[in-house]
Amino acid sequence: MANFITADTHFGHASILHGLRPGFASIEEHDAMLIEAWNSTVQPGDTVYHLGDFALSTPEYAGKIFRRLNGRKILIAGNHDRKNRKLGWAEQHDGIREISVEDRHVVLCHYPMRSWPRAYRGSLHLFGHTHGLLPGTTQSQDVGVDVWSYRPVTLSQILERMAASDTQPEERVLTR
């Protein structure tokens, strides 16, 4: 059983096609591709931490999508998740959620932070919301689908990308 992290799927959100995801002919095409990418990556026994903005649609439409997706799903709510609270999440959290994955302390939040709990001790921060507009650092990374070929990712994949960054988080620079 593996752990995956993702954000900003925006299922059912037709307006997202006009700016951030213009390569799709329709929201149905967009959603079908995201479902395929998710299910080809995530197995039924895996856990997926979704860092917000799951869907912007009717609760019925979001529910149909939710039930088709593999894995045990945990929501760290974003700004578009008010209607997504009753979908059957294994857990739901507002604000930040601190977890341990592969012996690493990880701070999950829909929004990016310039400083986060235990950053000066090497803690990682994973976020969404910005759709790839903010660069990652050696300890923080956007995990939204816009950044990761429209699929959930593992911590190992995220760590590889962080290792390629030359940018230190501000708190690490200031506390040395």
From TrEMBL:
It comes from the Bacteria. Transmembrane segments: none annotated. SUPFAM superfamilies: Metallo-dependent phosphatases. Signal peptide: none annotated. Residues 5-133 form the Calcineurin-like phosphoesterase domain. InterPro entries: Calcineurin-like_PHP_lpxH (IPR024654), Metallo-depent_PP-like (IPR029052). Belongs to the metallophosphoesterase superfamily. YfcE family. This is Calcineurin-like phosphoesterase domain-containing protein.
